[in-house]
Amino acid sequence: MLEVNGxxxxxxxxxxxxxxxxxxxxxxxxxxxxxxxxxxxxxxxSVMGLTPAARGDIRFDGTPIAALPAHRIARLGLxxxxxxxxxxxxxSAAENLIATAANNGKARKPWTLPDxxxxxxRLAERRHNMGNQLSGGxxxxxxxxxxxxxxxxxxxxxxxxxxxxxxxxQEIWSCLxxxxxxGQAILIVDKNVAQMSRIADRHYVIEKGRxxxxxxxxxxxxxPDLQRRYLGV
Length: 233
Fold this sequence. Notes:
alpha/beta, 10 helices
């Protein structure tokens, strides 16, 4: 479904990604792992057209998207939960959810507000609160719910549980497991290797803007030296 082939991405004169390639199939959960500053967020920004790749090819369902603006990429069926959440602070939780709701992909059963509230009951309780009145965990739930309301074929999460309390993190991972069970394709960046490995079909490990290892969750678990070499501080 998503194919990234040999992309080079720059910030000004500084190159961040070097011939990076990855793929996500329909219904698959894939992770991007690596230490801070290795290019994970830049990879996502390149896919979404926020920091366009200077070279290489990105395709979604066979359609070239590397040259498209971000809003057109999103309309093809990619939903982003960005690092930092970036919810609308002066809209209520309910208004945040419906502000960008769409069904461009013509999903047979599109997401509704009751569906999101069933997934995250806390959002139902806080639906009248402004975005800036929510806790960090509630804001992350809202960011996920907002992305789901666009009915994405591929859900992308950048730092899915960063800075959240342990109980909230567990709720987020349980939600992602439920989404996977429903056939949702997901691309995840996070630091919690154990939790990602429980739901991931495949991992990509990035170092200095290059993919240095890729394989299944079982293969990664069978090689603890990989985690020490590429993820250890």
